[in-house]
Amino acid sequence: MKLSSMLLNTLKEDPRDAEVPSHRLMLRAGMIKRLASGIYSYLPYGLKALRRVENIVRQEMDNAGSQEVLLPGVQPSELWKESGRWDLYGKELLRFKDRKGAEFCLGPTHEEVITDLARREVTSYKDLPLILYQIQTKFRDEIRPRFGIMRAREFIMKDAYSFDRDDASAEKSYEIMFNTYERIFNRCGLDFKPVEADTGSIGGSFSHEFMVLAETGEDMILSCNNCKYAANVERAESLGPDSIGFSQAPKGKPNKVHTPGVKTISQVCEFLGVKQEKLVKTLVYNTSSGPVAAMVRGDHDVNEAKLRTLLGVSWIELADDKTVQEVTGAPVGFAGPVGLGIKVVADLSLVDGSPYVTGANEEDYHLTNVWLSRDARIDLVGDIRFTQPGEPCPRCKKGTLQGIRGIEVGHVFKLGLKYSKAMNAVFTDVDGEVKPMVMGCYGIGIGRTVAAAIEQNHDDSGIIFPVSIAPYPVLVLPVDVKQGPVMEHALRIYEDLKTAGIDVMMDDRDERPGVKFKDADLVGVPYRITVGKRSLDRGVVEVKERSTGKVEDVNPDNVVGYCRSILKDKGS
Ligand SMILES: [Zn+2]
After folding, report:
1. Full-prediction pTM beyond 0.85?
2. Which CATH number, 3.90.960.10, 3.40.640.10, 3.30.230.70, 3.30.710.10, labels domain 255-382?
């Protein structure tokens, strides 16, 4: 494509509302244009990158034996009522009525539609396993869309769903998709990590997020420096004590200490002259099965996702001041386990047998020398806190967990029977029994993958596209379009590359070289072939690699072969 006739308008200045590099650079490189809040148009240069990712995804999904479908974006409410999500999904689900008054929504995801399809198409175990996928536009009415297409309301996603006859087979499908995702993100040229994610009520290690590692990422990952263990901070396990034991015999009695107005952890520590880890933080939660007190060390924080899973409740929220007063008999800041009349859950790190400082369940009082084994009634012990960077690895127990940031670009998840049971998606098994299908779901944010690639690969001058997803891997740049021999050589190289099947762009604009070089760096073309009078006098053109800045002199007659071999090396 020749730039003179291409719809590619670059911006010299940073757009004011762009918070992250990918958003800023995609706007500046003329890839996307905002239409409304969280809704973007893809312009030719941006769409080309999107299509590159799509092609890789499609090839790998097809190779893995899954089949492509295209499901409607508009979905009838009946299916969502069957699954129970019409009421549960909340305001992110954009609902509307048609002219006859029938209710619909814009699909934010397609479990309901695909389950409906499977229950109508699959009848026998012979039809299984089955993996279907689509690449399609979705809509989630995010309250605060931001970061450009990274957190948009309308977005393009590859979603896949697997159907199997039993758990063992479902786990095989999961593994196939997991391996396929590794191939996809490798081919996209990304530095990524599959990390264990929260499985909610499903349990087991059947939920992984694929994270592109970038400092600007929204997600915090804890990753072992010795083994392969990596998990989202929501999910990361902590290594508890070797054994749960109150080995030391309690000594003395709890002392009630007057602590007027001393409420926060740091205030208590300062007032009593103790370290945070010798303090018990007691938080009261309302849950779907009543109020619960959760205890963690003063230097730890309660992980509500872990607590919810441990309790096996459907929802959980921090209790308000009034409930805390009712439950503990004291205002917020003085709760403690001694004499508490509700269910008490203790974090693993507290059961080491040493005495602690706790709230006294009385305004302006704390207790010191509390031996949890003797003085408190603990109903449940488990891992209910956020694991922190620097802690030992829960898997190999030798390594240390490091905190790294990432952007979630893919998610694989074993759904189990959730939708097939609710929607009666059944098949007849080999033994003649009618059973619900075991399902899994697998998503990749296509636009988000492009944005994440830019977050990971950019510098002050602009984007540095990985070759495999670059809109155009090669740019021919004649320094002066008015010089006959320069333009002749440039045009010949451009045509030869096109004939060789290489996606090439040519900057044939009558602009100053500095402007053209700046734009080339901004839009991130991996290889720039500069055709200028001075180098032609030496019998060469210059090929510059965007990622390294390395320049090579190449004979104009050898440019096609040269490009072929470097692009092949880079997996294009
Ligand atoms: Zn480890």
Report:
1. yes
2. 3.90.960.10
